[in-house]
Design brief:
This protein folds into 3 domains: about 190 residues, no CATH class; about 40 residues, no CATH class; about 120 residues, 3-Layer(aba) Sandwich (Glutaredoxin), CATH 3.40.30. About 50% of the residues lie in helices and about 15% in strands. The protein contains 11 helices and 10 strands. The protein is flat, with a radius of gyration of 26 Å.
C-alpha cells in the first residue's frame, strides 16, 4: 500500500512538472515577459537583462525534474529539489494572492490561466505528493544504471534546450495564445451574454487635519463639516469575466480607432508587430519594410505597422533604418501577445489570422508571389511538419536511451 501511494505521488508530481515546464518551454519569450513583471513588482529590475536566460533555465529545470520523477532518476536529489521548488512557489503564490502585484503567476503559461488564489490552492494540493515523495525517497530503487541516469538527464536537457531555442527563434510550435493561426479574432473579443461583469464600489476621499481618509457612500461624514472632500473613485471589488482578447486596439493619429475596420476588411492585411522600436531587431525591421513596399507596389494587401513606442522614438528609428511605412498605435501588452517576436508579422483576412512569422522567418515577397493563401498554407504546412518531426525525434531518442540503459543493467 505504501509503495503504491509513493508511486502514485511520484508519477502525479512528475506529470505536473512535465506539463508545467513544457507549456512554458514552448513559449520562452512569454515566460520572459512574466519574469520581467515579477522583477518590476518586487523591485528587482537589475535582473531584467537576464530574464530570457532565466526563463529557459527555470523551465528546463522544471521539465527535467518531471522527467526525473517519472523515470526515477536520481530520486533522492530529485525529491529534495521538488520539495524545495514547491515550498518556494507555494510561499511566493501566497504573497501574490495577498498583494496581487501581478495578475497571474504564469505557472502553466498561456495553456491554463489561473488567478493568484487558484494558483496558491493548486500549490497546496501539489505540495502534498511532493512531501510524500520526499519522505519515501530512500525506498525507491532505480532500474537504471548510473550511466543510464546520466544519459536520461543529458538527453532531456539537450532536447529541451533545443526545443525552447527553436520556439524562441521561430515562434511557439504549439500556440496557446488567443491570436494563434486560424483564430477569428472578433469572436475572441465578445463578452458572452450573462457573463459576470466587473463589480465596483464608489469610494470618496475626505481630508481633515492633514489626514486623508476613505469613505463609502454609506458612511460619508456629512454631519462633520470639518471634513473636506478630496476626490471620488470607483474601486474594483470583484473582477468579472474578460474575453480572451480585451485590450487590442489599433489607433491612427489621423483617423482614431480603426480596429473594427481592419478586422472587417474582406481583403488581406499584413500587421507588422513592433512592440518597441528600440528593442526591435534591425534586420527584421528592414524585412518589414520590404513587405510594406511589396504591398504598396502590388496593391494586393493592406499594411499596418503597430507599435507602442513613443511617436518621437518611432520616427527616429524609422529614419535611422529608412522605414517609410506609417506607424499605428497599439498597447504594448497585446503586441507582445499577438506574436512572440520583435518585430513580427501577421497576415489577416476578414479578422482571421492566416499566418504568423518571427523576424527570422519573414517571407520574401516578389513578382513570383501570386497567392497569399498559398503563402499562409505553405507556412502552416512547414510548421506542422516541423512539430511532428521534432516530437517524433525527441520521443525516439528518449525511448532508446531508456531501452539501452535497461539492457545494460
Amino acid at each position: 500500500m505504501r509503495k503504491a501511494l509513493f508511486t502514485f505521488c511520484r508519477l502525479l508530481l512528475g506529470a505536473v512538472f512535465v506539463f508545467s515546464g513544457f507549456t512554458k518551454g514552448v513559449d520562452p519569450l512569454g515566460t520572459m515577459y512574466k519574469l520581467e513583471d515579477y522583477f518590476s513588482a518586487f523591485h528587482l529590475n537589475v535582473l531584467a537583462p537576464y530574464a530570457l536566460v532565466l526563463s529557459i533555465v527555470l523551465n528546463g529545470a522544471e521539465f527535467l525534474m518531471g522527467i526525473a520523477l517519472l523515470t526515477g532518476v536520481w530520486m533522492r536529489f530529485t525529491a529534495w529539489m521538488a520539495l524545495l521548488f514547491m515550498t518556494f512557489f507555494t510561499v511566493l503564490t501566497f504573497v501574490l494572492a495577498l498583494y496581487n502585484p501581478v495578475s497571474d503567476c504564469g505557472c502553466f503559461g498561456d495553456a491554463v490561466v489561473l488567478t493568484n488564489w487558484q494558483t496558491f490552492f493548486k500549490n497546496l494540493v501539489i505540495i502534498v505528493p511532493a512531501i510524500v515523495v520526499f519522505i519515501h525517497r530512500r525506498s525507491f530503487e532505480s532500474s537504471l544504471t548510473p550511466a543510464g541516469n546520466l544519459m536520461v538527464v543529458l538527453i532531456t536537457a539537450m532536447a529541451f534546450l533545443y526545443f525552447s531555442l527553436y520556439c524562441y527563434h521561430h515562434l511557439p510550435l504549439i500556440d496557446f495564445r488567443p491570436y494563434k493561426t486560424g483564430t477569428y479574432l472578433p469572436d475572441q473579443m465578445i463578452l458572452p451574454p450573462g457573463a459576470p461583469r466587473d463589480s465596483f464600489q464608489t469610494v470618496l476621499y475626505y481630508k481633515k487635519d492633514g489626514v486623508v481618509k476613505e469613505f463609502t457612500l454609506e458612511n460619508i461624514p456629512w454631519q462633520d463639516t470639518t471634513w473636506k472632500w478630496v476626490e471620488t473613485k470607483n474601486k474594483l471589488i470583484k473582477a468579472g469575466y474578460k474575453p480572451p482578447i480585451h485590450d487590442f486596439t489599433i489607433e491612427s493619429t489621423q483617423e482614431g480607432d480603426i480596429t473594427s475596420r481592419v478586422l472587417a476588411d474582406t481583403g488581406f492585411s499584413f500587421l507588422a508587430v513592433i512592440p518597441k522600436y528600440e528593442k526591435a531587431d534591425s534586420a527584421g525591421l528592414k524585412k518589414i519594410e520590404a513587405v510594406y513596399r511589396w504591398c504598396r507596389n502590388t496593391e494586393k494587401c493592406k499594411f499596418y505597422a503597430l507599435s507602442a513606442s513613443e511617436h518621437e522614438k518611432a520616427e527616429a528609428y524609422k529614419k535611422r533604418y529608412g522605414l517609410t511605412f506609417e506607424n499605428y498605435i497599439t498597447d504594448e501588452i497585446p503586441l507582445k501577445t499577438i506574436v512572440r517576436s520583435n518585430p513580427g508579422l501577421v497576415l489577416l483576412k476578414e479578422g482571421t489570422v492566416m499566418g504568423q512569422w518571427s523576424y527570422e522567418d519573414i517571407p520574401v515577397l516578389d513578382v513570383h508571389t501570386h497567392s497569399l493563401y498559398g503563402l499562409a498554407l505553405n507556412t502552416l504546412r512547414k510548421k506542422s511538419e516541423t512539430t511532428a518531426t521534432m516530437t517524433a525525434f525527441l520521443l525516439l531518442a528518449f525511448l532508446l536511451s531508456i531501452v539501452f540503459v535497461r539492457y545494460r543493467k
